[in-house]
Design a protein that fits this description.
106 residues, mainly alpha, 3 helices
Length: 106
């Protein structure tokens, strides 16, 4: 009896997860939006970046993540949905996002 209850709970959880993914694919994209994350270089932002990429791959987040780093990190490969910049470049990146938003509204 207990195994049947556990199986029913797992099946319900699986159905809810599938509905969550389908709902994420059906939601319209909001162009021009962006999330900004300030990196201090101590590695505390890595779990946030992994969570963001997981949700981005599912289609639930469809806007870029702008990582603001104190110094330019050229060694890393470009990653989908992530824009790396320095604090000096941040205003230019946000201006580009605003222009994209204005272009889609016109």
């Amino acid at each position: 009896m207990a195994a049947l209850i556990v199986l029913a709970v797992l099946a319900a959880f699986g159905v809810l997860c599938a509905l969550w993914v389908v709902l994420g694919l059906l939601l319209p994209r909001q162009p021009g939006m962006a999330a900004v994350l300030l990196c201090h270089g101590d590695g505390e932002e890595e779990p946030l970046i992994r969570r963001y990429l997981w949700l981005y791959d599912l289609g639930l987040f469809r806007y870029p993540l702008i990582l603001v780093e104190s110094e330019k990190n050229e060694a890393g490969q470009p990653v989908r949905g992530i824009i790396r910049c320095t604090p000096e470049e941040l205003l230019d990146k946000l201006e580009q996002e605003r222009k994209q938003l204005d272009g889609t509204r016109a």
